[in-house]
Design goal:
Layout: H1 8-14, E1 25-28, E2 33-36, E3 43-45, H2 46-52, H3 57-68, H4 97-104, H5 110-115, E4 119-120, E5 126-131, E6 137-143, E7 156-157, E8 179-182, H6 185-194, E9 199-201, H7 210-214, H8 216-219, E10 225-228, H9 233-246, E11 251-253, E12 259-261, E13 267-269, H10 273-280, H11 282-290, E14 316-317, H12 322-328, E15 331-332, E16 336-340, H13 347-360, E17 364-369, H14 374-386, E18 391-396, E19 399-404, H15 406-416, E20 420-422, H16 431-445, E21 447-453, H17 467-485, E22 488-492, H18 513-518, E23 521-527, H19 530-534, E24 536-537, E25 544-546, E26 553-560, E27 569-575, E28 580-582, H20 585-588
Parallel strand pairs: 8-9, 8-10, 10-11, 16-22, 16-23, 17-20, 17-21, 21-22
Antiparallel strand pairs: 1-2, 2-3, 4-5, 5-6, 6-7, 12-13, 14-15, 18-19, 23-26, 24-25, 26-27, 27-28
Helix pairs in contact: 1-2, 2-3, 6-11, 10-11, 13-14
């Protein structure tokens, strides 16, 4: 059979409006596609036809090559690509009466279930088969074929087999056509039932985004992606995160009607696409998908559509320093934050504690350290993460240094693998290369905190004549990036050279005034000097002209556009063995999530700041 001889009856089976007898098609020889002149008015790739007739994408490609008379070996078909992975056992195709009956109540037909290879096990549970793009069964999920009781496990994966973040039905998707991503398998089936077969669903819940990284290369093939999540808080968060990471320029969002009203005035909540199918029917579901929301003018939003959000509802990352978080609340996502301070002020320790705090809050991190090699960055960070309980004191001649134990390093590596991403040594430090890498990391790995240490180490690709213009452009680019991808950006900027050791002001920040004007926050660190600790008594001995400072480092909020706490200062102590800032011994002995042991007894290296009990030792707030 020649391709252009594909009759209209076969094509009509592919068309969502195939029930229309008046629908007609025309074949385009140049694009190998068909155009439907029925109600949907869509173009259909020849692969869409094959897939809708029951083939997988690889099988459809194989069929197309055969019809075209082109020899090609599809050697990847059926190949297991995951080494040391425990693949699931196939549940045999048998009786499906229970799942047919269950899904009939949800308006999904047996033909759709068979098309998506949904099966039934011996206990009558629904079996969701997840295949990779080589058509290899890679994960099997189960669900009761009835209403799930309160407190009952809603779904589970096959025992004895590994799990993988594949997308349900992805092996039956044409990468040349728009892709619909649903929150659950029933929603995916509802789309197929309505006639939109290029649909998938996420594997392990709306709050799990590891499927983006797992299927990154596959997802990058699509020019048009449609997101359909549930009408609840988790669904809205999923929608927002996926749009940020897959790219707002190619994503649209399905808006499922939230209320169904009967003719007699009764109202029922509609939570997802399957309920929309139940209440409104196939044509309405297809209409929702094909008319997914998109901005009519890129970069423009209607005033009425802007959501009014309270400051406490904005997501962000705490610093982990309680007195500082009392003022800052969080390092908010969507903002640019400047950290400054002279050499040795504690910027690296502050950044490292911010990194581990972000990881504790399950927000991934990207770090560019332009002055330190990767191994030294890791060494310093390990000290902060490990804490004193896993650090040994070492001596080399008269020098004393501290080293994290090997077993702790291994545990830290295993626990935080895939969470912290550091710009590799030897890569170009140009702004273009760096921003490209950051965007890839944000979209692929779900990075929420971007730290750039420091501005001086970044090649802005400029000359002395346009250096300040390029600085301004870079700062504006960072702010736009933070808003576009909903991430927090921390940029370390050195101060101008100063004549004497003193606390900094906004005007000491190196570079042009645009850095000061545009940043949402500016935080300065000052290492307390010996003369500061001694203070300056009044000449008559009646008190202090300048009171002594007991703290090791002062953290000054030089600018705060978010909450307005400009001018506030926080005093903290510094622990040399662990490189941690702390306010009290409890802070210093904080145990992070990687550490599952219970510790008793005093710290191995009691901080000298805590020794004098008669003096205030909890840091100061001014």
């Amino acid at each position: 059979m020649d391709i252009q001889d594909f009759d209209e009856q076969n094509l009509r089976c592919c068309c969502p409006f195939h029930q229309e007898d008046h629908a007609s098609f025309i074949y385009n020889r140049k694009t190998f596609s068909f155009h439907c002149f029925g109600a949907c008015a869509r173009n259909y790739d020849i692969l869409d036809v094959f897939i809708y007739k029951g083939m997988t994408y690889l099988q459809a490609c194989q069929k197309l090559f055969e019809l075209a008379g082109i020899r090609y070996s599809f050697g990847e078909l059926g190949v297991h690509t995951k080494h040391q992975y425990k693949y699931p056992k196939e549940v045999p195709i048998g009786d499906k009466s229970k799942i047919y009956g269950y899904f009939k109540k949800r308006c999904i037909s047996p033909s759709t279930l068979d098309y998506a290879d949904v099966r039934q096990d011996e206990e009558g549970n629904i079996v969701w088969n997840y295949y990779d793009t080589n058509d290899v069964l890679t994960m099997v999920k189960y669900r009761p074929s009835r209403k799930v009781r309160k407190g009952e496990n809603k779904c589970w994966c096959q025992k004895g087999a590994d799990t993988c973040n594949l997308l349900f039905n992805m092996n039956r998707v044409n990468v040349n056509s728009p892709l619909l991503i649903c929150e659950g398998e029933p929603d995916c089936l509802s789309a197929i039932e309505a006639g939109f077969s290029n649909a998938v669903s996420v594997p392990l819940g709306s709050t799990n985004f590891h499927w983006i990284e797992e299927n990154w290369d596959w997802l990058e093939q699509f020019d048009n992606i449609i997101i359909c999540s549930d009408n609840d808080e988790a669904g809205y968060k999923m929608q927002k995160e996926v749009v940020y990471r897959l790219g707002s320029w190619r994503t649209r969002v399905v808006e499922v009607s939230q209320i169904f009203e009967t003719d007699d005035g009764r109202k029922f909540p509609v939570n997802d696409l399957n309920e929309a199918l139940y209440y409104f029917g196939k044509e309405r579901v297809l209409d929702l998908i094909l008319n997914a929301k998109d901005s009519p003018v890129p970069g423009v939003i209607d005033f009425s559509d802007i959501q009014d959000i309270d400051i406490d509802q904005i997501d962000g990352i705490r610093t982990g320093i309680k007195t500082l978080d009392r003022y800052l609340m969080k390092i908010f996502l969507g903002t640019l934050n400047i950290i400054t301070g002279i050499n040795g002020a504690g910027k690296s320790s502050f950044i490292n504690q911010l990194i581990i705090q972000s990881l504790e809050e399950e927000k991934n991190v990207f770090l560019f350290s332009g002055e330190l090699p990767n191994f030294q960055t890791k060494n310093w960070l390990n000290s902060v993460i490990a804490g004193q309980r896993y650090i040994d004191e070492k001596h080399s001649g008269e020098a004393v240094y501290y080293k994290v134990r090997p077993e702790a390093k291994r545990s830290i590596d295993n626990f935080y693998r895939g969470r912290l991403h550091i710009y590799e040594d030897g890569q170009p430090n140009t702004k273009t290369a760096l921003m490209t890498t950051i965007e890839d990391a944000v979209r692929k790995y779900g990075v929420k905190l971007v730290i750039l240490d420091n501005l001086t180490a970044i090649n802005l690709e400029c000359s002395d004549d346009n250096k300040y213009n390029k600085q301004s452009e870079f700062v504006m680019e960072l702010i736009a990036f933070a808003k576009k991808f909903n991430v927090a950006i921390v940029l370390v900027v050195h101060p101008h050279k100063i004549d004497t050791m003193r606390r900094l002001t906004k005007m000491d920040v190196q570079g042009i005034s645009a850095i000061i004007d545009l940043a949402h926050r500016i935080i300065s660190l000052y290492r307390v000097q010996e003369k500061d600790k001694k203070g300056e008594p009044k000449l008559n001995g009646s008190g202090w002209k300048v009171p002594p400072i007991k703290d090791d480092v002062l953290i000054d909020i030089l600018k705060d556009r978010m909450l307005g706490y400009e001018g506030r200062s926080i005093g903290v102590f510094y622990d040399t063995p662990s490189r941690r800032f702390f306010l009290n011994e409890e802070d210093l002995d904080r145990k992070y999530s990687w550490d599952t042991k219970t510790h008793t007894g005093s710290l191995p290296y009691p901080p000298p700041q805590m020794i004098d009990e008669e003096e205030e030792v909890f840091g100061s707030v001014s």
